[in-house]
Amino acid sequence: MVAHEVVTGYLLKGSDIRREAVALPGQGLATGQVYIIPQFIAGGDWSSLIGLANQSGLAQDVTLTAYLEDGSVARAPTNPKKISIPGNGGIRLTAEEI
Known about the structure:
The protein is mainly β. It has strands spanning 7-10, 19-21, 49-53, 60-64, 81-85, 90-94.
């Protein structure tokens, strides 16, 4: 699937869960760089997947922090969550796993 805007409400074969897709293009290396990713939803008929890729040959540590709509940090036992991504590797987790 290729799109130039957010794709909403599509179904995968064999599933009745509606999906949306958002992609952030790969970024150059920078220490302490911050990116904001759109809202993620979990529960009901929704499931959010977050995929991160590491195109360098070295392992990279990433910190993911969830914020509430008012800008405050969401209270959760694993927030913020530190994740190590192997060199030339990637991860894909659900919002619940993070």
